Amino acid sequence: MSDFLHTFFDWSEIRGALPTLLTEGLRNTLLIAVLAILFGLVAGVLLAVLLLSRRRLVRLPARLYVDVFRGLPAIVTVSLIGLGLPAAGVRPFGRNPLGYAVIAVGLISAAYCAEIFRSGIQAVPPGQLQAGRSLGMTYLKTMRLVVVPQGIRNVLPALAGQFIVDIKESSLVYLLGLGVGQRELYFIAQERQAASYNASALVAAGLCYLVITIPLTYLVNWLDRRMREGGGRGARRPAALAQEDGTGTAGAAGELTAGAAVKERA
Questions:
Q1: Half-sphere exposure in the Cβ direction for 153 (13 Å, CA)
Q2: pLDDT per residue over 51-74, tens digit each?
Q3: Which pTM value belongs to this model?
Q4: Residue 153 burial (CB < 10 Å; 0-12/13-18/19+)?
């Protein structure tokens, strides 16, 4: 029992690891995760719109991307992007491994965000799109002003959950050999564990991950509960989303909601 406690709960090792974990590791873990989810959100919306296209040639590349990056293990994607690209002479970030780490996690996040957005957009009543087109709005304009904003609102809990996944997958970028000042939580803990042959630093890193992910998990549950409780109250009027168009689209958006409601009752 004493060996177990010494291996996993050596307080001197934990105290020695915590300052670096909190000042360097936690900062870089959050930096990688936040940049990756931002990349995933932007790319995911674009991919979702392509996935919903009626043209097969438009859907196919997006579907291929999503299937590949969702099907590959994350560690393989990180290795291919972070190690493979520089070895092939493709060095958009020079010798800075942090940029490759963000792109690798972001590419994975984009594939999952695309499916999240696709399901959210498909949950929007079809009458919204049909009524927008009947008012003379183009397909892309209707998607941008009416359908996509409502779809995003539908999937906020799932997006928060994806951010938690990105935080945990950021631990895989230790493969890229991050330098001092760029190391994330797992890299720092793994280095200390290899030097001391003691897992207490890994336990400390695990506690740091839990401090981030447990509150976010409760946030996801709260958002999901709010969305389910508010689901029967009707969608927000999309008129405010159309105010950026100075040609009267806001009024058209109001007619859009009314027209969609009539079609749904019919």
A1: 17
A2: 988 889 999 999 999 999 999 999
A3: 0.78
A4: middle
